[in-house]
Amino acid sequence: MNDDKPILRYNANERSNHWLVAILFVLAAFSGLALFHPALFWLSHLFGGGPWTRILHPFIGVAMFVFFLGLVLRFWRANFITANDRLWLRRIDRVMLNKEEGVPPIGKYNAGQKLLFWTLLACMLVLLISGVVIWRAYFSHFFGIGAIRLATLLHALAAFVLVLSIIVHIYAGIWIKGSIGAMLHGWVSRAWARKHHELWYRDVTGDKTPPNPGRKEG
Amino acid sequence: MASQDIIARSATTTVPPSVRQVDEVAKLIDTTKCIGCKACQVACSEWNELRDEVGHNHGTYDNPQDLSAETWTLMRFTEHERDDGNLEWLIRKDGCMHCADPGCLKACPSPGAIIKHANGIVDFNQDHCIGCGYCITGCPFNIPRISQKDHKAYKCTLCSDRVSVGLEPACVKTCPTGAIVFGTKQEMKVHADERIVDLKSRGFDNAGLYDPDGVGGTHVMYVLHHADTPKLYAGLPEAPVISPLVGLWKGVSKPLALLAMGAAVLAGFFHYVRVGPQRVEEDEHAPAPDASVQQVDPAVHVYDPNRPDGQGEQRP
């Protein structure tokens, strides 16, 4: 076994799918934020003005949801919370300080990534359903004013949670060196896999030595 | 009206101009004098060049059935059976109430698409309207309508173009019974009080003025025979307020949410500055190399020009 050989974390389809969702998210977020607060209305100029922002935003949102479903179908099995994940969450303070002593080994995704996955899925579902209700041009006339008001509020709330989650997601990528590469070109080093996703590393390499119970400071 | 007259502007967080001190105007609609002739509807269409599609008769006198982007005012007819068995025909001219605290303006995301004038008129500026329909979501009276032709929101302007040059609204000018009157809000309240005294003397004990406080009062007011139950008049809301859902959506939560998003970005930045990135040392946790085995980097070739094959001694 060549220990220098990198590991493919995401194949080309997975990477393309991820970046399609990412690009659509940026477009949906900017066009949505333009209508969210007057201080950000200038963002509507990126889309050709207010009316075009209003026209495009829902279509962008639906496209984002559809491609996000692709990611869900690819990755949902890897996102079930395990006992190790609960312990990882209890020791989140150590993780945040780059001190991994006593932080349990984890699989393809850590508990933070898994919680992000389910949060994104919940937000996307709320955004889709509430977004349809407040889509004036095609659907709003099917709903009463009470439903529209509630949907408007939920849409803003879910979008807020989604944007916050993505800020955390982007920062985690910047913080953990090697992660952006994993999603850009697909490959991670063995050391990276062993350090950040030890159980996944053992799984994909067939390494049968007992997992490190509590890793040394590193 | 001059731009100094704009005292509130949608999606604007700074203070509007406040130099003009103008009397607030109001339109008073006396439902007890209305005969349902719809001359006001026609005058509105005439003045504003509105030609709604000819619809169908749905078995009531309401015609058309509802307000639309081309019907800004509408007589709504209600047959009300009184406790004594007598039938009353309650006719209410529906349209924008020109609230002092307009829900449409609060909900609108487009700067300047909805403005409130110093005289109390709430006006839509279709040039800035983006067609999102948030004004409909915000309105407690179900008034604004989005045009299916140009996807802009429309409603009664209180003939702001006429009022600005000292004329009364078209519906007021045309009303043959004097059921619609127009003047300063103060004058209209005095006028309404006189009407209410008269109505009470004629047995309408619950006669009163409809100028709901929940929206800060309105610049279109009604004299009602049954002011205790405005619902009778084709669902005129009892105590209209901007929905708490809209208040939550457009209130303090928005700047807080914006602040939270900015704070999240800053928190990330300072985490990076203080804690720093997580880098993997490439030999971390790798099995320690066996010191007895001599490792040779195959990429390093040593060239020795003194030897016939040019190969130098392999370095340890």
TrEMBL record, chain B:
UniProt keyword annotations, A-Z: 4Fe-4S, Cell membrane, Electron transport, Iron, Iron-sulfur, Membrane, Metal-binding, Oxidoreductase, Repeat, Transmembrane, Transport
Keyword Repeat attached: yes
Domain of life: Bacteria
Matches recorded under PROSITE patterns: 4FE4S_FER_1, 4FE4S_FER_2
Compositional bias of kind Basic and acidic residues: 304-316
Gene3D superfamilies the record matches: 3.30.70.20, Single helix bin
Region (Disordered): 281-316
Coiled coil residues, start to end: none
Cofactor(s) this protein requires: [4Fe-4S] cluster
Subcellular location: Cell membrane
Pfam entry (one): Fer4_11
Keyword DNA repair attached: no
Gene Ontology molecular-function annotations: formate dehydrogenase (NAD+) activity
4Fe-4S ferredoxin-type domain span: 25-53, 87-119, 120-149
Cofactor note: Binds 4 [4Fe-4S] clusters per subunit.
Protein role: The beta chain is an electron transfer unit containing 4 cysteine clusters involved in the formation of iron-sulfur centers.
Protein name as annotated: Formate dehydrogenase iron-sulfur subunit
Organism field: Pseudomonas farsensis
Gene: fdxH
